């Protein structure tokens, strides 16, 4: 089973795959690769071989191999030229089987993996306090943008940077990175208290998932720290409304948030990934709350950005329809 998994992973790495899907059918299991926007067929294997392979993968990721009735998620590594993180997630199905998805990503951040991100964000890394929030759906490049920002700060600004992630997605030399481990009592809240005693200049929080984390992030941003984090939302306005639902007041949002970026990674006409984004700065946030939750006329919505990209021939109509 190790040889089979190694071959699948090597083929996935060669094709620049982000996710490997194992989808049980009635008599066999379909293996598909996620490449950019598309899910492409890779291979099919027999049910019996898949059962053995799944047991091996669960063991490698530290999951309960005897539990077939609950969703599980764990992590392991794979070495092929460099180290890769494998996040292995299983899901019980009505067929009496489990589906499985492997999220594949290099363990160490590399300058070669930089996306064509907005360099005008970099000046914000000089700020002594505030929240920089990257928003969008899963797979929109939020975490990669955060890594770009802190890698820039570590390399050029000589700042003390501490991250709390669940789990750590990419390692960056010279940065203190903490991985959440609930069983060991290492969670976002306890880590925050410890971090604030370690004189950080910049704090990276993997994701704002609930009201407790939101309050910790806002408190840190208001108390003299620059904080970077991510949030799932469809647009910048939605990100602000989600924070309000989590108990953050309009005053706290206006005082603490330096920037909200909502982004998508879209495939251009040449098959390459390109970043499309809308940005809400502090002045836009203040306008939003002072004018009955409306945006200023100059604000460029993501839908308009994508429409312009389509009109300029950067992306096709199909991609435009998919993201608007």
UniProtKB/TrEMBL annotation:
It comes from Staphylococcus debuckii. Residues 196-210 form the Bacterial type II secretion system protein E domain. Keywords: ATP-binding, Nucleotide-binding. Coiled coil: none annotated. This is Competence type IV pilus ATPase ComGA. It comes from the Bacteria. SUPFAM superfamilies: P-loop containing nucleoside triphosphate hydrolases. Belongs to the GSP E family. Pfam families: T2SSE.
């Amino acid at each position: 089973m190790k040889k089979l998994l190694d071959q699948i992973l090597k083929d996935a790495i060669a094709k620049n795959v982000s996710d490997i899907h194992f989808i049980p059918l009635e008599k066999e299991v379909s293996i598909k690769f996620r490449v950019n926007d598309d899910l492409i067929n890779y291979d099919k294997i027999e049910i019996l071989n898949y059962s053995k392979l799944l047991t091996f993968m669960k063991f490698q990721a530290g999951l309960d191999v005897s539990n077939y009735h609950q969703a599980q998620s764990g992590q392991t590594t794979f070495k092929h030229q460099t180290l890769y993180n494998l996040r292995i997630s299983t899901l019980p199905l009505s067929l009496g089987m489990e589906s499985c998805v492997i999220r594949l990503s290099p363990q160490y951040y590399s300058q070669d993996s930089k996306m064509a991100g907005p360099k005008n964000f970099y000046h914000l890394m000089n700020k002594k306090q505030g929240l920089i929030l990257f928003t969008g759906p899963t797979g929109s490049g939020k975490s990669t943008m955060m890594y770009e920002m802190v890698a820039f700060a570590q390399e050029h600004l000589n700042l003390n940077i501490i991250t709390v992630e669940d789990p750590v997605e990419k390692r960056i030399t010279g940065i203190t990175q903490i991985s959440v481990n609930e069983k060991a009592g290492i969670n976002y809240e306890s880590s925050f208290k410890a971090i604030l005693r370690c004189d950080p200049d910049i704090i990276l929080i993997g994701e704002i998932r609930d009201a407790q984390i939101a309050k910790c992030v806002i408190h840190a941003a208001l108390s003299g720290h620059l904080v970077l984090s991510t949030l799932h939302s469809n647009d910048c306005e939605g990100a602000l409304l989600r924070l309000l639902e989590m108990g953050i007041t309009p005053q706290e949002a206006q005082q603490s948030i330096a920037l909200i970026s909502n982004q998508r990674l879209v495939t251009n006409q040449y098959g390459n990934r390109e970043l499309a984004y809308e940005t809400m700065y502090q002045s836009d946030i203040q306008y939003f709350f002072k004018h009955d939750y409306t945006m200023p006329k100059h604000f460029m919505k993501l839908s308009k950005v994508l429409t312009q990209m389509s009109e300029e021939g950067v992306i096709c109509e199909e991609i435009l329809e998919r993201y608007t």
